[in-house]
Amino acid sequence: MWHHFMGGSAWPQGNGEDIVRLKRLLIAGAAAALAAMPASAGELSFWHAYAGQQDKVEFIDFALGEFAKAHPEVKLEVVAAEQSAYKTKLNTAMASGNPPDVFYTLPGGFLNAFVKGGQMYALDEELARDGWRDSFLESAISQTSKDGHTYAVPVDVDSVVFWYDKARFAENGWTVPKTYEELLALAEKVKGEGLVPFSLGNKDSWPATFWFQYLEMRLKGSGVVSAFVNGDPDATLGAEATKAMEKLAELAKQEYFPIGFNGMSDQEANMLFLNGQAAMMLNGTWQIGASADAPEGFELGYFAFPAVAGGAGDQSDVLAGVAASFGVSQKAENKADAVTLLKFLTSREVMTKYVELRKTMVTVKDATTETAAGPVLYDISNKLMKAAGHLDPFYDTAMPPAATNIYYTSLQGVLDGSLPPADAAKRIEDALRAK
């Protein structure tokens, strides 16, 4: 446009004053047109939850720094928050009709609530181009899709295992338990040494969910919450949910968790574990990154959640699911640049750096390399995950938000003794049945 208007040969013939007047009119018109363009052109608001933890901050600083070098034409207005505060902040922004353009979101029920409200931009067309969709693990893409459309790109896959210090176990002659009974016997030994058997900081409610979900998986099997979410009329948590809650209540009653654990943060629980005050911790594979500043001599090891005698579930099943994803708001005016940002964040190079810095498995094929992952994570990825009968997604992210809140409060109630196990199980089942 500019070449056509400003090139000398394009101007009509006439006297000098006419030409100057015409030039001024055209330039003024072009300036007015530019001024009328949306302010968001070339600019994007980008919200993420990678705050409050060193490995998360290192990753996002790297990724956004590289994006700025590769795409200087796109200006990002970045807003960062820690996970729990972020959820509230994003929900508030979406509810008020002022969503960010590109943002971090959890898969499952959290994302689906925005999809239901017509607030998410479907990425199907973009994913179909240049093999972008094929670069992801299909099992991961399915967790950010609903009714045949994909509304976010999955970033990482976390699995949950027990973590322990190999050196501490060897020193004390403790052996890795294979059954739940052996786990409880080990907890008694640890407690007898004046240590906390299992570190747990449940202030933000999600850390205790791993205990309940694994017990439910071992007792009843995988896929029970997914069945509710997928509208299966026969879906039920069953009597196993009450049994799982009873086992959880017993752990708290036996004082196998730290004093005041329901008011303790996950970071504080991690410090107890790394400092040797707690022997074990049931947590996600992000624990590898969180253990980077462990004291000298600490040797991080892992073991699978043990088999529960008489349980009907496949005892090799692993709690694992997409932990984070990024989506684009339907209201975003600059969707082309938004997609460019998503493609950059999920490129193999950036995702391999994610693995290297965060020691977490990613959803992009061939990005979880042995060199980037390190021996522990690579072992989990290639042995535990591959041998699993099923990978069961996180209950709390799969559930609709209202059910998730009831799930959290019910677990806290069982753990502090204020809610009977059977009542907690019924509350969660009723919440899952509610539409």
Oligomerization = single chain
Rg from alpha-carbon coordinates: 26 Å
The CATH C-level name of the largest domain is Alpha Beta
Mean pLDDT: 90
Any overview of this molecule?
With 435 residues, this protein is an alpha/beta fold. The protein has 2 domains: 43-156 and 322-377, Periplasmic binding protein-like II (D-Maltodextrin-Binding Protein, domain 2, 3-Layer(aba) Sandwich); 159-320 and 393-433, D-Maltodextrin-Binding Protein, domain 2. It contains 20 helices and 12 strands. The protein has helices at 2-6, 16-36, 54-70, 83-95, 109-116, 124-128, 138-141, 166-172, 180-192, 209-219, 224-229, 239-253, 266-274, 287-290, 335-345, 348-358, 370-387, 395-398, 401-416, 421-433, and strands at 43-48, 75-80, 102-105, 145-146, 149-150, 152-165, 196-198, 278-284, 300-303, 318-328, 361-362, 391-392. Strands 1, 2, 3, 6, 7, 8, 9, 10, 11 and 12 form a 10-stranded mixed beta sheet that branches. It has a two-stranded antiparallel ribbon with strand order 4-5. α12 (239-253) packs across α20 (421-433) and α19 packs antiparallel against α20 (421-433). The longest helix is centred in the N-terminal third of the chain and has 21 residues, at 16-36. The protein is globular. It starts with a helix and ends with a helix. Mean pLDDT is 90; it is low at 1-14 and 26-41.
